[in-house]
Amino acid sequence: MTGVAGETDEADVKEQYLTTIRLIERLHRRFLDVIKAELDRLGVEDINNVQTLILANIGEEQLTVGELTARGYYLGSNVTYNVKKLVENDYLILERSAHDKRMMRVRLSEKGLDLTRQIDGFHERNAEEIRGDIATREQLLDINRILTSIERYWSRLISFGR
Questions:
Q1: Does CATH number 3.40.50.300 belong to domain 3-160?
Q2: pLDDT tens for the 162 residues of the chain, in order
Q3: Positive or negative, the Cα torsion across 127, 122, 75, 107?
Q4: What is the Cα–Cα distance from 155 to 151, expressed in whole angstroms?
């Protein structure tokens, strides 16, 4: 497109793109606040919201710290420090790999599994309320497709440039 209409369209797309980026950042911070509020409601004081996300990302698996770092995006956090704290507070079990003694693997303890089950129930309730009041499953799928496409676009920019 050329002319004023095309320029207006491009400016609007840019503004919407920047709004999306700001919303993603705010949503992440707000989500961490929601997790913290749920931990407070449960009376859990020996773990923080980011550490709770780390537990959720491990789930039933055994992972190395490197795999955990690659899998999750723990903005502004030190995964190694958080894993150490989770081990100290009995949420994680740290074990040497049977195949490579230099490699350490982590898995959830019973305490960690119990908390992730409680948080999963919380997510289940939230999902039901969102489905009833805010967005349909199809709308959430559309949002997720778009956000995944933006993530892939940004990954390509990082890896290959323009």
A1: no
A2: 455 656 678 889 999 999 999 999 999 999 999 999 999 999 999 999 999 999 998 999 998 888 888 877 666 568 889 999 999 999 999 988 777 777 889 999 999 999 999 999 999 999 999 998 999 999 999 999 999 999 999 999 999 877
A3: negative
A4: 6
> Environment class of residue 39 by beta-carbon count within 10 Å: exposed (0-12), middle (13-18) or buried (19+)?
buried
Lookup result for tokens 């709004």: 19
CA distance linking residue 140 with residue 160, whole number of Å? 30
Task: Give the CA dihedral 10, 15, 17, 21, nearest 10 degrees.
Answer: 160
Please list, in sequence order, all residues whose beta carbon lies within 8 angstroms of the beta carbon of residue 115, skipping any fewer than 6 positions away: 42, 44, 47, 52, 55, 91
> Which of helix, strand or coil describes residue 47?
coil
Q: Which sequence spans correspond to the domains of the chain?
A: 3-160
Closest to 31 measured CA to CA, from 121, 122, 112: 122
The pTM of the full predicted model, rounded to 2 decimals, is 0.83
Strand ranges (E), the chain: 63-64, 92-96, 104-108
